[in-house]
Design goal:
single chain; mainly alpha
Length: about 50
């Protein structure tokens, strides 16, 4: 993984963290965890082939 890939992941990760940290609505937090899980799963080689 090179710097450009890390940058592509860091920007959405920062946005998701801000949403999780500062939005009090539990539905938004659940959505953030789902999106973050999908992004993380996309980085795992076996899961990336299935998605």
């Amino acid at each position: 993984m090179d710097l450009s890939n890390l940058t592509k992941l860091a920007i959405p990760a920062a946005i998701l963290y801000a949403l999780y940290r500062f939005v009090p609505d539990q539905r938004v937090k659940a959505m953030v965890l789902g999106v973050a899980g999908t992004i993380a799963a996309g980085q795992i080689p076996y899961v990336k082939d299935v998605i």
